[in-house]
Protein: Phosphoserine aminotransferase
Organism: Buttiauxella gaviniae
Amino acid sequence: TQVYNFSSGPAMLPADVLRRAQHELCDWQGLGTSVMEISHRGKEFIQVAEEAEKDFRDLLQIPSNYKVLFCHGGGRGQFAGVPLNLLGDKTTADYVDGGYWASSAVKEAHKYCTPNVIDAKVTVDGLRAIKPMSEWQVSEDSAYLHYCPNETIDGIATHETPDFGDKVVVADYSSSILSHPLDISRFGVIYAGAQKNIGPAGLTLVIVREDLLGKAHKACPSILDYTVLNDNDSMFNTPPTFAWYLSGLVFKWLKEQGGVEAMDKTNRAKAELLYGVIDKSDFYRNDVAAANRSRMNVPFQLADSALDKLFLEESFAAGLHALKGHRVVGGMRASIYNAMPLEGVKALTDFMVDFERRHG
Ligand code: PLP
């Protein structure tokens, strides 16, 4: 059976990329060794690193006054990295709480400042929603405003483009980076763990506006210090070379597919198909308001949760893997990142319709 992996992360990678990596695994560029066994400072790897950065910049049209850093530490590393780099002499920052990950960032921020928490979670007509950006009460003395545009667990998203004047906007794009075009100039910092919509776990990308460098707290660990990382071309310590290389292959694949505009189109079609099947039936349900539905992570419940186990067993047997919802939400969740083709979502919705016919 053709397997489609709906894992929220580490997540499915494009089959073409995996095949290419497999092909060159033991003898990369005719060196008789793999890319993960060579020095990160040699000219061969430097070329991989530079090309990956260039392709990433091209894909998101990152302006030249932004630096791209290839880091360790994941999204959670940046929950500390952001305040340590950006607070300067300020003692507060605005944190918009729209779900599980935004609120985890708040917890970490408490170690470094007194966050002004903006609770953006609302219920509209019995559906979960996020307050529109115009209602976010930003404080004057905050060093920055932090939010998470796509909440991986809650399946809730803010699709608006931020417009907060001079306020430095920081966004955790871990689960939606490269899924649609982005106006980078509206942000001070964007960060994303690679393991959902980019490549293997272990790599974290940070996009930081140049003028925000040079302000790190003196206790900031060097490996989280944007200025140190930038001064060393992200090679202050040994970078996750294999993840960097593989992410570079994903960037090339994305360019071949038509870039983030093409991804956006397919991602919208995938989400429409899946939410459409959920909405059409009383057997399945999703409780997120239409305007805030995530196009990357689609949680859904079966009306009869006693059927959950059977649904998971049968879907797995049909090649539809990792559909179990996060433990704090329950039910099901289908993560449909860039690497998930439309056919994968079609296979899932066909299965769902058939399962309902047999058990509804
Ligand atoms: N932020 C978001 C939106 C996430 O989805 C996750 C992981 O699932 C994280 C942060 C945490 O990332 P990491 O496990 O790389 O620290």
About this structure: Residues 9, 74-76, 101, 148, 152, 172, 174-175, 193 surround pyridoxal-5'-phosphate (CB under 6 Å).
